[in-house]
Amino acid sequence: MIRVNIDKCGHCGACVSVCPTNSITLVESCLSIGDTCTTCETCVAVCPVGALMVS
Amino acid sequence: MKDSYDVIVVGAGPAGSFAAATAAAECDALLIEKRQEIGDPVRCAEGISKLGLSKFLQPQTKWIANEVAGARIFAPDGTKIEVSGELAGGEVGYVLERKIFDRDLAKNAARAGADLLVRARATGLITDHDTIKGVKVQHLGEALEIPASVVIAADGVESQVGRWAGINTTLKPKDIESCAQYYMTNVDLLEDSCDFYLGSEAPGGYGWAFPKEHKAGNIGLGVLGSRLDGRRSIDYLDAFVERHFPSGQRIELNVGGAPVSNAVSTTVKPGLMLVGDAAHHTDPITGGGIINALEGGKLAGEVAKEAVRLQDFSLQVLQRYESAWRASFGKTLDRNYRIKEFFVKLSDEDLNKLVHSLEGLTIEEMSVSGLMRRVISRNPRLLMGLRHLF
Ligand SMILES: Cc1cc2nc3c(=O)[nH]c(=O)nc-3n(C[C@H](O)[C@H](O)[C@H](O)COP(=O)(O)OP(=O)(O)OC[C@H]3O[C@@H](n4cnc5c(N)ncnc54)[C@H](O)[C@@H]3O)c2cc1C
Ligand code: SF4
Ligand code: SF4
Predict the structure, then answer these.
(1) Which fold has domain A2-54?
(2) I need a surface site. Which of B38, B113, B135, B208 has the fewest CB within 10 A?
(3) What residue owns the CA closest to ligand 1's atom 18?
């Protein structure tokens, strides 16, 4: 599962743009990951601030 | 608000607002934006060429934080070359206040007759077989279905609309710059120059320092997504700041992704057009995208008007938009993608050599392709792969 550190996330949408399964929803400062996520970690790799991690 | 529209534009960035303003001159147009505040937060270094901007809009004093005469490019070893504004990929000239600029563009759309909704997020498309017939919207907690003859997707780098229509807009990590930027004060910047820093301080991307006022400006960098390995873009930025601007204080932090990819292969479907970052229309070398967003927005707005006049929203008619952007900036995007693919592989040593080879050139004799020809002729072996492009 991918977790978001809300104290790091800058709500920029970079993760959304690379997600192959379109599992990420960004509404203002609220980021959520849907259950279609395959834990491929592409989003983790491109996040500018390291707000995403596998848990 | 009306029950249905000729045109719905999703996303009130430069591409969407300009498309809506263009279309609203003749059609019933609705512009929806998911944020509660248009233009905020900023995901941009705010550099734009004077010439490029003036092609579309009469520049307003309140949009412009600062005016620069040119750019400096720093090699990894600190050697610098100075270039004219036109040369720097068109990203210099003005340093904008995007918060004011983006809002004004949205106002222009409203003044042209468009309806505007903020805190209105597209959540899906209304479709009839393969044709897009409108947008599903969450507006302040209420689910709406708004029919439209044409939908223009201007929803930026995080674009969903294209994907809902079956267009693959997913970026590969090697085709996105992962960016971090501080708006900093107490920094010594040359006030009339936008500065670019090449090399492994920002692997596969570059660092920038764009002055906005006396001793203050946007200082940031982009690292190619595929090159991030443990260290994050913000870590690279902190090291960059420590090295070049140690006295700086951070006023604002912005992060973002800039496509440095090929343009989306199909930007139209029956009833749908993709514009701006949603169509990956940013320049693959610089990551700059405001000008192409305006141009694409305008072209899509015009084709939308045409389609409404003809009452024909088929692929055949909307294809005119795709042909128009390809004829306008498509070739440059293709060429610059190939240059980018080449440049991201160069080592610090290679980059030093390139910059050294340009020292002493006079600014007057330069143009982008002229410069590239010069670089290639002085570094034939290093740049063999690019020769055929010029
Ligand atoms: C760090 C960084 C620095 C940059 N520096 C420069 C620069 O110096 N010069 C330059 O020219 N370009 C620069 N760019 C690129 C530039 O910011 C973009 O190309 C430009 O903003 C694209 O405009 P747009 O209208 O296509 O998209 P955006 O400006 O991103 O607008 C898209 C809008 O759509 C909204 N939206 C998204 N999804 C939905 C939805 N589902 N429903 C409703 N609304 C939605 C978003 O909230 C947003 O307001 C930079 C980019 C980054 C990340
Ligand atoms: S890429 Fe990182 S900072 Fe940007 S929205 Fe995703 S989690 Fe947040
Ligand atoms: S791990 Fe992969 S599938 Fe899951 S949200 Fe991130 S990019 Fe999408």
Answers:
(1) Alpha-Beta Plaits (3.30.70)
(2) B113
(3) B289
